[in-house]
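Below is one such protein, fold included:
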Amino acid sequence: MRYQISGKQIDIGEALQTHVKSELGEVVEKYAQRPTEAVIVFSRVAHEYVCETVIHLSTGLTAQAKGHATEIYAAFESCREKMDKQLRRYKRRIRNHHSARTTPVEFGGASSYILAPTEDAEDVEPDSLQPIVIAEMETKIPSITVGEAVMQLEIGGQRMVVFRNEGHGGVNVVYRRDDGNIGWIDPRNSK
């Protein structure tokens, strides 16, 4: 597994990096057979240290956890415990999808845009009806099943997952509804 351990405006020593690799490696190996990458970022907010961890699995899932504490090691331990709990909770589902999938998930490229907000003035007519793009970046869209997308939504703590449906190759969306349920948008089924 490849580790990327960094700090935002704080120095991360070798001892902490070694500790993170051994402890996180132990947790991930217990629940996921083929992790590919772990990104760990330490930062400081006021008097607290914050540890954010994102683990990418070969099954296409991404698990995320965040921990806070007044000491940097305690922040990591809090994050590690949350990651352990999250992976333990979905262990059976991860293993079921893992055994059915023989090859790693394929990712396709796509563009992602961030649009500037519009002003709320009622009588002001905009100069152009085109939105102003303030950021444009590349993003990856996984080719997974609907079940894997729902699991990604739950494990990653995201509000929405855009994916290419392995069943028919079309782009689909699963999202968390306001009532707590999960919605699925499949444009192919609307005909």
About this structure: The longest strand covers residues 133-144. The beta strands are 2-7, 35-45, 48-57, 62-69, 107-115, 133-144, 160-165, 171-176, 182-185.
